[in-house]
Amino acid sequence: MICSLKSGPYTFAFEKGREGIGYAVWRDAGPSPICLYRTERPLKILLKDYAAKMVDLDAAYESAEILDGKAVATGRVKTDLGSEFLFTDTVEKEGDGGTFRFSRRVEVTAAQADDLGFGSRISLGVLTGRKFSEYNYFAPGSIYRQNQWCYPNAYISKLDSQPCHWFRDAHFTLPLFSMQHIDSGDAVTFARAEYDVHPSEINERTYDCVTSPTFNYGSFGVSKFGYLSMDYVYPGTEGYDEESTPYARGVYKYQFGFRRRYHPVEEGFAQECSVVMRFGRFGRYQDLLRDAWRYVYGRRPPVIHEELDLDRFFDVEIGLLDSLCRNYYGSWGVPFKCLLPTGEIGIVDYEFGFIGQQPNIAYQLIRYGTKSGKPETVQKGRNVIDFWVGNSLTDWGLPKCWYDCQPARWLDQPIWTRMISDGLEGILDAYNFLKKEGEEHPDWLAYVKKVCDWYVDHADPEGSWPRAWKISGEIHDESRGNTSNIVRTLVQLYLTCGDERYKAAALKAGEWCYVHCYQGMEYRGGTCDNAAVMDNEGGIYACFAFLSLYDLTKDPKWLEALQGAADYTATYAWSWCYPIDCANRKHAFRHVDFTGMSPVTAGHGGGGDVYMGAVTYIFYRLYLLTGDRWWLDYDLFLDRNTRTSYDIDGKFGYGRIGLCEEGGGGYSSFSQSGVYAWLPWCTQIQVDPISRMKDTFGVTSVAEAEKLPRDELLVRNEIYREYPYYGK
Asked: How many Å apart are CA 497 and CA 693, to the nearest integer?
């Protein structure tokens, strides 16, 4: 070794090789350290030549030494035409947990006109495996293991068929990328060290190979150009598969497999970037995911928008639902859509759950109207539930899920387990709430029991169910990943009426979810408007299931599974940000950043919606159950930042107080594009956890709850204690 730095059991060493100085990473393993990663020619240039082709050039360092506690190595790369690049790479340790910071400066010291652009590649040669498929991967919100539950052409979905897989750091909810050898457990995480990303001067949606001095994002990924390596490419050339571009079915297919980005080859121009390299060994993939996410999140936690008043937020949002709920052509409900920026109603039809959430909204109106002395609001909620209870059941057992009020008809749409569970919980919550107020609705309870009886009778031998049925009763989607969705409903129905069949069905379904969702990470199919792919709502509903089973039984296996599902789900919240353009529209992101937003499905990064607001209550309860301070700190962030994009005081110009945009994309290309409309779920998934916080802890916010005595919080956290059959 010429020089080295040590962090924990890992040593980053500059070593003399056959062609000059390279670097390697060693792990202590008793008397014989193991070399895990080695790069013999680390100075790598991606050159845009005179014909706009990408040419790989590399060289070894010429010198390496320790200066002021840092390892500094230098060297040069020359092109055939005579352009010259001076590299200065600096490595320093970051704590004692196997983490190093690698900073690179590349200066153009000579330039030739026909060398049109350049990028560089920080490369870590992997010695443990020979194929991409020998590894699992993690990039938050986009890549989990090998994305086997994602859409075709998702990131890394064709691992060994491509020479490289590079993805822009701005695609991910934190700028990090991890790979873990499946057999050995050895893992490395690359993360962007600084968050100073900004838009360039070009249209970032283009697939052309472009040169600009204004690029300052990079790309993470893996490649196999002679050997397998973990890479950070700067600026962010990205690509992996021509089939995944907009040109896949056209004559330009083979011209647009990559978005190539270059800096200018101009004498005096200097490129600078830095990444964090974190090394570890993990027995399980889930442990790598947790370690990478928490470490990178903790390096630069997002700014929390503490100025948001959640009491006022709740009043505005429930008031919005109250104002929109009425009798439309003979049936009660909340419109399917309001348009931005006018706030006008766009469509009126009703969904039982998911993006429509009619019975859950009805429960919230009943609760709010009762507590605030507004009998007309309570009656609106009754009317909505009466409509579904009285009209929606099919003759074969499950309820129809989508109703159009004019012309009055049930739409021929699939019947989803996710949608059913949402609607049943709303009806059951309303039933239990009004029963405590002395008001009986036996028909509501009978409706919930009838639907759940069907589920009990039609579970497969493992305790799971298909994802969806046709309205005629045939199976529409065989995927079983939605099994978690109905578990909490069954638990709460058992606690309401005491029928052991519901408890048994919930526990058996929970066992299936423990194996498939938690251990197998099959968090998929949570959204009814996507295929049965991995998504954030699959994780959220697994959290609901495992928490309800733990509340019911206190069996530690359910708490273990809850923590695993929550670790996965947490990685979907954008926890860093950068400027994005809003296309000259009135938009929240002209006033607030997009932290707290969340991608919907894994596999393709770069957008978000507000659904992570749904977890604030359960993440706080998880903190109380485990004592893990990280969950409190993270939930304080979610409790505010998932709600800042709602137009609470009219400053966003959305035309109606309380609206937000349902979701959008384009973040990674620095230009927001979305549906530019509000849907009922946007408000329901925010008022639900806030109302649960109020009912459980007597306050609306996590910060206020933390002011209560710890002993009182733990007692209040026993949320099922008031149900008739709790503990029986």
From this structure: 25
Give the angle 546-489-395 at the CA atoms, nearest 5°. Answer: 140
Q: What is the 3-state secondary structure (H, E, C) of 308-334?
A: CCHHHHHHHHHHHHHHHCEEECCEEEC
Q: In the prediction, which pLDDT does 363 show?
A: 98
Cβ contacts of 14 within 8 Å, gap of 6 or more:
1, 2, 3, 4, 21, 22, 23, 61, 64, 71, 73
pLDDT tens, 167-191? 999 999 999 999 999 999 999 999 9
Residue 466: inside a domain: no
In the structure, what pLDDT confidence band is assigned to residue 255 with cuts at 50, 70 and 90?
A: low
> How many C-alpha atoms does 245 have within 13 Å on its Cβ side?
22
Assigned domain for 193 exists? yes
Q: What is the token pair recorded at 686?
A: 């925010």
The DSSP annotation for 636-658 comes to HHHHHHTTTTS-SSSTT--SSTT
Close Cβ partners of 220 (under 8 Å, ≥ 6 residues apart): 139, 166, 167, 169, 172, 175, 176, 177, 190, 231, 232
- Tell me: the pLDDT tens digits for 309-356? 999 999 999 999 999 999 999 999 999 999 999 999 999 999 999 999
**Residue 395, Cβ density class (10 Å: 0-12 exposed, 13-18 middle, ≥19 buried):** exposed
Q: Pull the structure tokens for residue 135.
A: 């590894």
Element (H, E) at 487: helix 487-497
Q: How confident is the model at residue 163 (pLDDT cuts 50, 70, 90)?
A: confident
Does some domain include residue 207? yes
Per-residue pLDDT of 628-673, as tens digits, reads 999 999 999 999 999 999 999 999 999 999 999 999 999 999 998 8
337 C-beta neighbours (distance < 10 Å), count: 17
Residue 238 included in any domain = yes
Nearest to 548 by CA among 485, 488, 493, 605: 488
- The token duo for 482 is 């939605």
Q: How far apart are CA 346 and CA 637, in angstroms?
A: 33
What tokens does 325 get? 């709920």
Q: What angle do CA 119, 124, 127 make, to 5 degrees?
A: 145
Closest CA relative to residue 595, chosen from 308, 202, 166: 308
Whether 104 contacts 44, CB under 8 Å: no
Q: Is 680 helix (H, G, I), strand (E, B) or coil?
A: helix
Relative to beta strand 415-416, strand 408-410 is: unpaired
Q: What is the domain range of residue 289?
A: 3-299
| AA identity, residue 450 | K
Predicted pLDDT at 249: 67
The pLDDT value recorded for residue 500 is 97
Residue 136 has pLDDT above 80, yes or no: yes
Is residue 52 scored above 70 in pLDDT? Answer: yes
Q: How many residues would you count in the chain?
A: 728
Give the C-alpha separation, 461 to 178, whole Å.
37
Which has the closest alpha carbon to 72: 112, 140, 108, 21?
Answer: 21
Q: Record the tokens describing residue 589, joined without a space.
A: 């992101």
- Whether the model clears a pTM of 0.90, i.e. scores above it, the answer is yes
Q: Confidence band (pLDDT; 50, 70, 90) for 247?
A: low
Amino acid at 538: G
Strands 210-211 and 261-262: parallel
C-alpha dihedral (304, 310, 312, 316), degrees to nearest 10: 100
Q: What is the CATH number of the domain that holds 258?
A: 2.70.98
Of 178, 281, 185, 194, the C-alpha closest to 230 is 178
Burial of 627 (0-12, 13-18, 19+ CB in 10 A): exposed
3-state secondary structure of 96: coil
- By the 8 A CB rule, do 245 and 263 touch? no
What integer pLDDT is reported at residue 157 of this predicted model?
83
Is 52 exposed, middle or buried (CB count within 10 Å of its CB: 0-12, 13-18, 19+)?
middle
Number of domains in the chain: 1
